[in-house]
């Protein structure tokens, strides 16, 4: 058994009892369906023939009671399989959904760099639904179909062998037809799934960027792009429904043909007194019990395909090992001073051809305020993202207080680093929730203190419900500067000894930049800080400026030292910053 199948079966484990009960009731229900025609046969062949009305009435009454009892059992079984069976599937889906969400939390940045969120969402929704359907309908269908098929087969032989052979002469044809159609439908369903995943990705992309769409007044362009995808989807659906139409009508035709053949053959046998009317009637009832599982089995193969390919896609993701994980003997940091050293660090993105940089050597003292300068795309953000191990160094190592960051538990490492970026992501919820994201244990007073430190308290108090104002998804009801101050408050609350400000004020207007800058400086006090900024004021005050170029660190020094050097920084300074002075 391969690992995937093992994993699939492992989801049954917690529900083994429920599963067995489900199978039992499926078995019960299908066995009962085999009994009814038998009773019909008994009534027509025995009772109506051998007894007169006054004698047969009480017997028929008794049989009716038997049938009612059977109906009650069937009712219970059906209720159980429909309710508990579906619940078992739903619980298995619940477990899988938890597993994949947990796995999503573990996967590294490099994974998300190459994914469309909409497609990942599809994995959790559509794909898992297919799996659930398989989980409980699959085994049920197999049981029900086999019982009905085998039972009906033996009863048919028992009633009349030549007629049974007549029926079976159709079955191979039916199977060939069904298998052929199944192949076509499988491909069609696969296309459907790909197309719906594309559409979901497109919707996600569009809605995330709806402000850009509107600012470019590109609604019509988006609509026509969307229509293109949506058209592909409907074309794909048309194709699969066409195949489904052929499939189902074909099977219906086969069933009708079998019935006609049996009636023709049976009529002949009745005329020759080989069988009687009751037998033919019973035979026809069982023929349908026999054909039914053949149809079901074919549906099942389709369900199996869908479910297994849904599970494969689920498993594919579950199998992706996060490329950055704790070593078994990783340690937790305590009392971090904040000394950071890059030793011969080189870095290359997974799918890139060239290194972003090589030979980075840099020693940063605890509490030092370092500015990173360099043209856009040179690797400033990348260099900073190596410190919290968002990406792993390709060569060399980075240490915090002399400890290789690879030897530190990720959670502990990241708890000690605060990041303020240009783009602020705020979660759905209140201002309070969003600041508290920095420290779940913080009291209301802690949150307010952090907000005051971040120059956010005053504007928060002016919001309709103060700290308990719902800021909506992505915090759209706040200005850029306000959002930035919330994100700073979050870091105040986290209180890490190491900070990274990556263009934190770059998108702000002058006025809010000043307020944000002020709170950033307050935050930076007594913490090791890396600042990436394009504004002179931010950089000038740095204790040390690091100039990053294509081939590594070009210059380091204070603003004055670097100006005096007349090197890269002096050039950059004249070019970009002179106008600001
Ligand atoms: P900076 O912050 O100095 O503007 P970055 O660190 O963002 O520069 O980018 C450095 C280089 O790495 C650029 O060439 C950029 O295209 C590339 N890069 C950035 N992020 C990724 C990523 N997630 N995957 C692959 N390449 C990336
Ligand atoms: Mg950058």
Automatic annotation (TrEMBL):
Entries under Gene3D superfamilies matching the protein: ABC transporter type 1, transmembrane domain, P-loop containing nucleotide triphosphate hydrolases
Transmembrane segments: 12-39, 59-83, 165-183, 246-268
Molecular function GO terms recorded: ABC-type oligopeptide transporter activity; ATP binding; ATP hydrolysis activity
InterPro entries, per database record: AAA+_ATPase (IPR003593), ABC1_TM_dom (IPR011527), ABC1_TM_sf (IPR036640), ABC_transporter-like_ATP-bd (IPR003439), ABC_transporter-like_CS (IPR017871), P-loop_NTPase (IPR027417), Type_1_exporter (IPR039421)
Domain ABC transmembrane type-1 residues, every copy: 23-306
Keywords: ATP-binding, Membrane, Nucleotide-binding, Transmembrane, Transmembrane helix
Subcellular location: Cell membrane
Domain ABC transporter: 340-575
Topological relation to the membrane, as annotated: Multi-pass membrane protein
One Pfam family from the record: ABC_tran
Entry GO CC: plasma membrane
Descriptive protein name: Putative ABC transporter ATP-binding protein YwjA
Organism annotation: Herbinix luporum
